[in-house]
């Protein structure tokens, strides 16, 4: 009888005696809150993951702890790095994911994002960006007169009107655009411009889940307009001058409207893009008196031509690369639902005959004379 009870006693002991509450439910002081994860290319099967942990102690010499590990899957890094720190690592406060350009071009980022997306501890509003050089170097650098790196990167990637040219992309948004049937994702592109600053310099374009190219901030602004953004950030315009030289102005846009007209034929696609913008001139170095209606019409016309050129240069690049970050495929899918595929749309988009017209209205010049 005693021999029969022995396994039961051992099982009860294991269930109760080993149930340490400090292991299952560590207090907040024992948690290492991962703020940023950086991904660098190691080889075709492995990645180098760097994580940053804010230091809660005011007496700590460094504001942030940083650790790195070479692994095949992102959660393996969390497991490995947990053995290097006295903290229990948690991704519950993860705010930013950085991918080196090499990693984004060679390995692609969707598999990583998909694995992180499965984790219920990780929020879907984490910001994503591609960086020039190594993500580890970005995270390990010291930025004078800036907040600690977790806060600095989060604030840098938080959408603001002045930087709205950048398609601030979250984990959810990237996966949504990657898996839909009409468009491709894009992300901000960061560079370390000096020893103390990081800057959003470009926008990274993705085909499927790999980065293929970048576009300039000015081109990205018109792309945002074509994606339906109502209020655009300030834009710098160059137009022919009244006396032969070039003139420059900065427009602050009040609002914009975009419409695409398509013929719906995937064999011979035709697309007409119409963009209407209203804005105020806040800087101008030309000689035209903008209070004159005739002069204002000239500036509006030339500004429209300038933006048209930006639109066509961006669209031509998209056709050449076979990427479509605007989402024009939705107009065609409404007419070609049976048998629709993203691959079929991208092939049609490459050969599409695209024309555009931009209409500009200046609502204020700030003229005092």
Automatic annotation (TrEMBL):
One of its GO terms (cellular component) is membrane. The keyword ATP-binding does not apply. Keywords: Germination, Lipoprotein, Membrane, Palmitate, Signal. Residues 27-191 form the Spore germination protein N-terminal domain. Coiled coil: none annotated. The keyword Lipoprotein applies. It is found in: Membrane. Belongs to the GerABKC lipoprotein family. This is Spore germination protein. It comes from Halalkalibacter akibai (strain ATCC 43226 / DSM 21942 / CIP 109018 / JCM 9157 / 1139). The lineage of its organism: Bacteria, Bacillati, Bacillota, Bacilli, Bacillales.
């Amino acid at each position: 009888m005693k021999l029969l009870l022995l396994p039961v006693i051992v099982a009860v002991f294991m269930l109760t005696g080993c149930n340490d509450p400090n292991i299952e439910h560590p207090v907040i002081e024992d948690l290492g809150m991962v703020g940023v994860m950086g991904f660098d290319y190691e080889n075709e099967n492995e990645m180098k993951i760097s994580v940053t942990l804010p230091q809660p102690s005011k007496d700590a010499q460094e504001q942030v702890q940083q650790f790195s590990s070479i692994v095949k899957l992102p959660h393996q890094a969390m497991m490995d790095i947990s053995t290097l720190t006295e903290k229990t690592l948690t991704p519950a406060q993860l705010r930013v994911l950085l991918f080196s350009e090499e990693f984004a071009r060679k390995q692609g980022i969707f598999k990583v994002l998909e694995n992180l997306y499965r984790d219920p501890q990780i929020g879907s509003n984490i910001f994503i960006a591609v960086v020039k050089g190594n993500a580890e170097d970005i995270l390990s650098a010291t930025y004078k007169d800036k907040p600690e790196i977790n806060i600095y990167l989060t604030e840098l990637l938080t959408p603001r009107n002045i930087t709205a040219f950048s398609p601030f992309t979250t984990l959810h948004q990237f996966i949504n655009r990657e898996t839909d049937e009409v468009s491709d994702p894009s992300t901000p592109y960061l560079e370390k411009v000096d020893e103390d600053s990081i800057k959003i310099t470009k926008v990274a374009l993705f085909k499927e889940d790999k980065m293929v190219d970048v576009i300039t901030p000015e081109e990205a602004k018109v792309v945002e307009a074509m994606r339906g953004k109502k209020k655009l950030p300030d834009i710098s315009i160059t137009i022919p001058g009244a006396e032969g030289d070039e003139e420059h102005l900065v427009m602050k846009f009040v609002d914009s409207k975009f419409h695409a007209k398509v013929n719906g034929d995937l064999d011979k696609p035709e697309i007409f893009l119409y963009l209407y913008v209203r804005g105020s001139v806040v800087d101008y170095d030309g000689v035209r008196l903008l209070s004159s209606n005739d002069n204002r019409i000239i500036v509006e016309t030339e500004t429209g031509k300038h933006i048209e050129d930006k639109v066509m240069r961006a669209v031509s690049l998209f056709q050449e690369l076979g990427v479509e970050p605007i989402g024009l495929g939705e107009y065609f899918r409404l007419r070609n639902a049976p048998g629709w595929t993203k691959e079929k749309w991208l092939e049609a988009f490459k050969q599409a005959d695209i024309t555009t017209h931009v209409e500009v209205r200046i609502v204020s010049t700030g003229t005092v004379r």
